[in-house]
Amino acid sequence: MTEDETGARNVAMVQGVYERFARGDRQALYDALSPEVHWTSAGDETVPWAGTRHGHDGVRDYFARLDRESEAVGYEVEQVIAQGEWIAILARVRRRAHATGTIGDYAKADFMRIVDGRVVDFREFYDTGRVCRDFRLG
User: Please, which residues have CB within 8 angstroms of residue 128's CB and are 6 or more apart in sequence?
Assistant: First the structure.
């Protein structure tokens, strides 16, 4: 399979997962993950869900920590870009902070490496300073 074909296949898979995830189907994401996935979220110890986790249990821990602080109220994919095994996703996420009731609209960038149809590496980046202010973290 050529790099272009791999990229096209991976883009289709990622778009499907993100569409289902945006509708609240978190299982679609778990099903797309390799058992050995490395999951990294930007931020320092001020952000409870930040850091690198491994495997499905690590990803569930990430979401448990995120859900303790906020709830999703919107998610929109703006652009999906592929190069071989790597996919970049530019998106907007809206989350309501439990501590303040503030609904923040955050631009984010996700990067995934997909091998044999499974996500083996996930990295997300967003304005952690703004999240800390909105969520009253730290």
Answer: 42, 43, 44, 46, 47, 50
Give the residue-averaged pLDDT of 14-38. Answer: 93
pLDDT at 94: 96
Residue 53 to residues 36, 41, 63, 105, 122, Cα–Cα distance (Å): 10, 9, 11, 25, 10
- What does the angle CA 64 – CA 112 – CA 137 come to, to the nearest 5 degrees? 35
Quote helix, strand, coil % in the chain, to nearest 5: 35, 45, 20
Give the pTM: 0.92
The answer on pLDDT for 4 being more than 80 is no
Quote the distance between the C-alpha of residue 117 and its chain's center.
17
Q: In the numeric block, which tokens belong to residue 74?
A: 């919107």
